[in-house]
Automatic annotation (TrEMBL):
This is NAD-dependent protein deacylase sirtuin-5, mitochondrial. The lineage of its organism: Eukaryota, Metazoa, Chordata, Craniata, Vertebrata. It is found in: Cytoplasm, Cytosol; Mitochondrion; Nucleus. Its EC number is 2.3.1.-. One of its GO terms (cellular component) is mitochondrion. NAD-dependent lysine demalonylase, desuccinylase and deglutarylase that specifically removes malonyl, succinyl and glutaryl groups on target proteins. Has weak NAD-dependent protein deacetylase activity; however this activity may not be physiologically relevant in vivo. In contrast to class I sirtuins, class III sirtuins have only weak deacetylase activity. Difference in substrate specificity is probably due to a larger hydrophobic pocket with 2 residues (Tyr-98 and Arg-101) that bind to malonylated and succinylated substrates and define the specificity. The active site is at H154. One of its GO terms (molecular function) is acyl binding. Gene3D superfamilies: SIR2/SIRT2 'Small Domain, TPP-binding domain. Binds 1 zinc ion per subunit. NCBIfam families: PRK00481.1-3.
Amino acid sequence: MIVCKITCRGILNSHLRARLRNPWSSQNMARPSSDLAAFREIFSKAKHIAILTGAGVSAESGVPTFRGAGGYWRKWQAQDLATPEAFARNPSRVWEFYHYRREVMLTKNPNPAHLAIAECEERLSKQARKVTVITQNIDELHRRAGSKNILEIHGSLFKTRCVSCGHESANYKSPICAALEGKGAPDPNTSDAGIPVQDLPRCEQAGCHGLLRPAVVWFGETLDSDILTRVEQELDNCDLCLVVGTSSIVYPAAMFAPQVAARGVPVAEFNMEDTPATMRFKFHFHGPCGTTLPPALARHETEDQTV
């Protein structure tokens, strides 16, 4: 598998990237099927299902993406703030941005797509079948929906890491520190709060008190090698793969499903539009994930109705 060799967003063999972006570059590619009954037949026999999710799965929950036209916080886009360099230059501004995102997420709820995945995992676990969620999202909506077997490859809004001692932990405080209360308004006319660094979130480990940062993968940073190893294991062992709400343009995640498809495993894409990888998959279901996914993952007639 290529997964273990790719540890940073944007790093990928240029030949492989070019092939993925051009869906017609491989021979004998037929249009993916949208036959739900055919998918359900395969689903009913699958023992190890990997579900890859991206921003599209959370869109129906009203989660802002800060991408594309209009994707601004004040006058900045995510790539202007989600970098180690931006945090070093202005930790107050970056923490305002992430504080705003944390507070917004606390007002959002899992949608039918998240709930369908969680229910499927719980139901199939009682049948000695496995469901693993591999998500690019940092919103924790899968966890709140009830999913247990989750790999968050880009981290979480609700985890922090100390820049001094490296300690990482869950953090659901609201506000995360007193100085950020009421701060982070996204209006472009809002000025930076200019919070002194000593008043920003601090490490609570004994004797440390170092500055905390969001435990998310910023642009230019390396993905966690342990998580990538676990992702590789899941993708190597799955006998069915779902790609839900992903653009298939963020690397290395963009290569996960095509690599699974390349070894002959059925892959089903659920998305509002085609992606650069669509033609590599066996199935494509067009529409909102909250509409298309629940019937796909519902209890199959062949399943034991008592569990």
